[in-house]
Amino acid sequence: MSTLTQTLPETDERSQGTDSTGDDSPKMFHYVRKAKIAESAVMGTHVVALCGEVFPVTKSAKPGSPVCPDCKKIYDGLPPGGDD
């Protein structure tokens, strides 16, 4: 299983979860804490997406990739934040 991430200008970020088809093709990406992406990619620790999905980050996302609808709904409802 692979995971992907993409940096966004907000506090939270998109990241691929364990939702994969088994052929290394991700089904969708999830929003996770920005500060945890690099740590996960380097150390292999797991991140927790806004929807509750737990997974390690291993790859970068490509623009236009499908986003977890639960993560998107939660993210869109968050107040604007800074880049931390």
Question: Can you describe this structure?
Answer:
With 84 residues, the chain is of the alpha+beta class. It has one domain. Helix content is 23%, strand content 25%. The strands form 2 sheets. It has a 4-stranded mixed sheet with strand order 3-2-1-6. Strand 4 and strand 5 form a beta hairpin. The chain starts with a strand and ends in a 7-residue tail after the last helix.
Mind sketching the topology for me?
Layout: E1 4-6, E2 12-16, E3 29-33, H1 34-43, E4 46-48, E5 54-56, E6 59-60, H2 69-77
Q: What is the number of beta strands? A: 6
Q: How many separate structural domains?
A: 1
Task: Decide which structural class fits the backbone.
Answer: alpha+beta
- What is the rounded distance between the termini? 28 Å
The biggest beta sheet is recorded as: 4 strands, mixed
Low-confidence segments: 6-15, 17-21
Q: What Rg, in angstroms, do the CA atoms define?
A: 12 Å
Please describe the structure with a list of short key phrases separated by commas or semicolons.
DUF3039 family protein, 2 helices, DUF3039, 23% helix, four-stranded mixed beta sheet, globular, 6 strands, 84 residues, alpha+beta
In short:
This protein has helices at residues 34-43, 69-77; strands at residues 4-6, 12-16, 29-33, 46-48, 54-56, 59-60. The protein is globular. The protein is of the alpha+beta class and 84 residues long.
